[in-house]
Amino acid sequence: MADAICRAIFMISPKKIRPGLRVHFGDARVRACVAVGLLAVFSASVFITGNITTEGHTTFAASTENSVTLCSVAQTELERLLSLRRAAEQATSAAELSDIALALARNNLTAFRYKPGESLPTETSTLPSEWEEIFGKITTSPQQTRPLSTTTDYSVGNRPVARPNVDTTRTMCISGPSVTLRESGAYRGCGPIGKLTISGADILVQNIQAQSVVIQNAQRVLVSDSTIANGSGSLVSIAESRDVTLENNELRDIVGIAINVYPQRVVGLAIRNNLISGVRRSGAGEVGSDPGGGIILGHSYQDSLPSVHPNLVVEGNRFERFDQYGDNMGAIHIKTNDVVVQNNFVDAAGAWIAVRHGRNAKIISNTMTQQTEGIRIMGDNHEVRDNQVPRIAIMAGNTTMDDFDGDPPYPVARNIQLSGNSVAPQVVCWGNCPLNPTFVVEDAL
Known about the structure:
This protein is of the alpha/beta class and 445 residues long. Helices cover 16% and strands 39% of the residues. The chain has two domains: 137 residues, no CATH class; 272 residues, Pectate Lyase C-like, CATH 2.160.20.
């Protein structure tokens, strides 16, 4: 409840700090402060006048100026948290406190809504200078200075993902237990949807509530500002499609996989600024069971063959509330080539970002809290830089861990470039050792 209140606080801010802001307050004093502010607002009979849609994003307007007071309360608490963060930078016992402040500030920064290659929204020009100063400090470790990237790094060969060419002034309403979209157009939800299947070209889907979405034999598809929840198996499945974007959605409460991608016949996929939470697994992680996970990019060795170049970009997403039943789970699990993973925030116990099969992955500027498992690297020619994580594991030896599909063992890490990360890498031996990984560390720590 307090989290929802805090999101509302920032959404009604007259300064328009930024659209799509998600805020996580884990501090009891913050919750108490918000409660006091909320009580003051109710005492003054603040009335929320309704939804105001600007450029497809929903904000709220308040009929009195008490929203300013409430926003000031939240801003003061943020400044207090960040002040504590700075004071505790040298204290090893302040890890949990550091995570709270870092999570809040970093998640704010990764909540920008923008398209690859575009400049930041105009709202950022009104960002108060003191906020810019605070965010600039909190996103750098004591050992380095690295500004947060504001555009996707496509130097690995990834191109911008094409968006649907549709008339957004004319939308069609959809609802029902099973809906299939084949015709080009803009669609919006007007009631609950069980299963949504998209198999056409130039399709825009916004503001739906569904239990599952299947995108297959489709091209130029955008699903945004929607809630996909309470499903099993996979909330979103993508196969045999081209130029698909999942943006600004909430995917939650799934027994299985939140976003399941079959990359052999997928070209062009952007998974951007989504909240993924409440992920559980149906088994304990033993051979043959459902491993569960957040974003699964590939399933077998075939998905990482040299001929497979799916052009996948995963950026600005938040992961939280993963079930640790049995074993740890992947927030982002990669078994394919040429994937860019950047500016994601992982605050889920036991979750990791892992490259299992594949070549030429870029793992850049991600933040993972102390309760996560950090980053695991196998495969060839990956770049891992500017990440704020508790650990980085470089895998030595071939292993059959989690291998229940008959594929060859997971490969040893080779030609890995590491720079600007918050921790030094560790070499971990799995399977048949000693096979040694090859990696270069530049400007570590």
